[in-house]
Specification:
By secondary structure, the protein is an alpha+beta fold. The protein has 16 helices and 28 strands.
Length: 625
């Protein structure tokens, strides 16, 4: 796929064209351009989740329409991921103790006859300053935003909606983009750097950003933004954020700056790439190289049968997109183009249709399942790639069950010999099959063009039916090979990780990360190892979570298909490098790694040089001291 270059030198023109468009259009564009994706599900942070102090609130003042809209909008990325922003919110907005200086009307913020109070709705993370709007403008739909700087209020943005877009523009490029930062000494030593900046690039058209005394003016370049920190507290006078590494270096070269590879900060979060697969093509006797599936038959298309009664759950003609039913049928499910899921349990004494707005895109597939306990599950997928999962007797979980950046093509669920399972096909040709009891997952790269999936038990195995435009293939699933680490996942759940400690607090994240080490996606597995390294490895103090983690890590290291073996072995080796005094927790951690040595010694002869080197490190760290 060709990368589309966005010239932020034209951003001032976009800002001007925003006038008259829907209020949040530009915010949506900026967020998507820098890599933010709608996570699906429900917000994890509400307007009442910030500083809900009633002291200092003037209840007679209205709240501007734009602020209410932002809180209610699915485009509000703060509500879904506050850590992108590092700010505190205030709801309802409170009256600041600092008034605006009034003037004689010669161009200041307010005149002596205006209400000089400011309604604060947000503050910087360290409470260094606050953002608010004038009480005199509270009745306006989209008032100006002021910021407290040095004991006085100055104008930060021409409107609330522009401020919230600018705040996203300040935060997201540093998180999702490539970054180079240059300090005061570097820039002050060569005044030509700023002159080249002003000559080569256009301003974004936004007012200077005043946070932490930076007084930063922003410029746009192809796929990059450059911030010139002019204020006295600007630690970095030039900060370059870019959507690609090449764009980052192009700007640095144009400004005449020098850097090393160590100076370049890669994105903190990178969207998972889609698969690059051809059309699905399955013939009888085809099999997976790892023995996970074998094609038994290929027949004419056989779309799954569903009860026609499910279609009646959607009242508006033409909006029905997907239906499913459970035996009887005792459970009917339908999805529509508006993102609603409609459910009716027909065996209730007084059955009624429950309609939930679970998706922000058309529902493309639904399925349902009844567990041995009688619990009924409903699963739905949409055109944004989001899968929601819930029980008919409980409120849906806020977070999606799964999400990928391509439409869900089909869902299927069944109780297999191992327990309840879910299969999902996305439009890029990836099929995932989950064991719901253990969260073990298998990625099957079957190809594009899948119309329907079917899933059922067959003796000790499972059958996955894959229907494309031409045929239906029946794949026998070898469940032991499909989920080789299913037992490990279940054993992970038997450990009380929350009572154990890591270098960064309780060990809640450890089992999830160990599970990701087993992923057949190399980046997922490597990222998990690196995260475990930060949690568990410390030369100065042992981690109580490390001791029960070691056997699981060793077990994954013995899997020849593991995608992170050399880095994983080095993690195990470094867990033995603990300098804490004997008799403390360090002894237990070292002993746990030493117990694994017989299992791992064969790696001295591994064909991969990095693994042989890590095996030698392991021996040295476990040696007597």
């Amino acid at each position: 796929m060709t990368h589309e270059i966005i010239d932020y030198g034209q951003f001032a023109d976009r800002l001007e064209r925003q006038q008259g468009r829907p209020r949040w259009t530009l915010l949506d564009e900026v967020q998507r351009e820098w890599g933010y994706e709608d996570p699906g599900g429900e917000p994890g942070h509400s307007r009442w989740g910030g500083e809900n102090e009633e002291h200092g609130v003037d209840w007679d003042l209205p709240v501007p329409r734009a602020l209410n809209e932002w809180w209610d909008s699915p485009l509000n990325s703060f509500a879904f991921n506050p850590r992108l922003y590092w700010v505190h919110t205030q709801w309802p907005p409170k009256i600041s103790e600092l008034d605006v200086d009034s003037t004689d009307g010669s161009g200041g913020i307010v005149t002596p006859d205006d209400d000089a109070r400011v309604c604060v709705f947000m503050s910087e993370y360290h409470y260094t300053h606050e953002w608010g709007y004038l009480a005199a403008e509270a009745e306006l739909p989209d008032p100006r935003v002021l910021v407290s700087v040095g004991g006085q209020w100055v104008e930060q943005s021409r409107s609330l909606s522009e401020f919230l877009m600018q705040l996203a523009f300040e935060r997201m490029p540093a998180h999702y983009g490539w970054t180079l930062r240059f300090g005061r000494d570097t820039v002050d030593a060569d005044p030509e750097i700023v002159r080249r900046l002003e000559a080569s690039y256009r301003e974004l058209g936004l007012l200077p950003w005043q946070e932490m005394g930076t007084d930063a003016l922003s410029y746009g370049a192809p796929d990059a933004v450059i911030r010139h920190g002019r204020g006295p507290r600007a630690d970095f006078k030039i900060v370059i954020n870019a959507r690609t590494r090449d764009a980052l270096l192009d700007v640095a070269r144009t400004l005449g700056l020098e850097w090393t590879d160590k100076d370049i900060r890669p994105p903190a979060e990178v969207p998972v790439p889609l698969e690059d697969l051809g059309p699905v093509s399955l013939s009888a006797a085809d099999s997976d190289p790892r023995g996970r599936w074998t094609v038994l038959t290929r027949e004419f298309p056989q779309p799954p049968a569903v009860a026609g009664a499910a279609a009646a759950l959607v009242e508006t003609p033409g909006t029905l997109r997907a239906v499913a039913s459970l035996h009887g049928p005792t459970l009917l499910v339908a999805g529509d183009t508006e993102g609603h899921v409609h459910v009716r349990e027909t065996d209730d004494e007084d059955p009624e249709t429950i309609t939930l707005g679970l998706h922000r895109a058309p529902v493309t597939s639904v399925t349902c399942l009844e567990l041995a306990t009688g619990t009924r599950l409903v699963l739905s997928g949409d055109a944004h790639g989001v899968i929601r999962y819930w029980s008919t007797r409980r409120k849906p979980l806020r977070a999606p069950f799964a999400r990928r950046s391509t439409p869900v093509a089909s869902l299927a669920a069944a109780v297999l010999p191992t327990g309840p399972a879910l299969a999902a096909a996305w439009a890029d040709g990836l099929v995932r099959v989950w064991d719901l009891a253990s969260d073990a997952v298998a990625n099957l790269r079957l190809g594009t063009g899948i119309k329907f999936l079917g899933l059922e038990a067959d003796g000790a195995d499972g059958i996955l039916r894959v229907t494309d435009a031409d045929s239906t293939a029946a794949l026998r699933l070898d469940l032991a090979k499909l989920w080789p680490h299913r037992d490990l996942q279940l054993r992970l759940e038997s450990v009380d990780w929350g009572s154990l400690w890591t270098a960064r607090g309780p060990g809640h994240m450890v089992p999830e990360l160990i599970g990701k080490v087993a992923s057949d996606d190399k980046k997922t597995a490597m990222d998990a190892v690196h995260d475990l390294y930060r949690l568990l490895v410390s030369k100065e103090a042992a981690s109580t979570a490390a001791v029960p983690a070691v056997p699981f890590l060793v077990e994954l290291m013995t899997d020849p298909d593991n995608r992170s073996r050399s880095t994983l072995l080095l993690l195990i080796a470094d867990l033995a490098d603990v300098h804490q005094a004997r008799g403390g927790r360090g002894d237990a951690q070292l002993a746990a790694v030493r117990d694994a040595l017989p299992t791992l010694r064969h790696l001295h002869d591994d064909p991969e040089g990095a693994i042989r080197w890590a095996a030698n490190e392991l021996e040295q760290n476990c040696a007597a001291r």
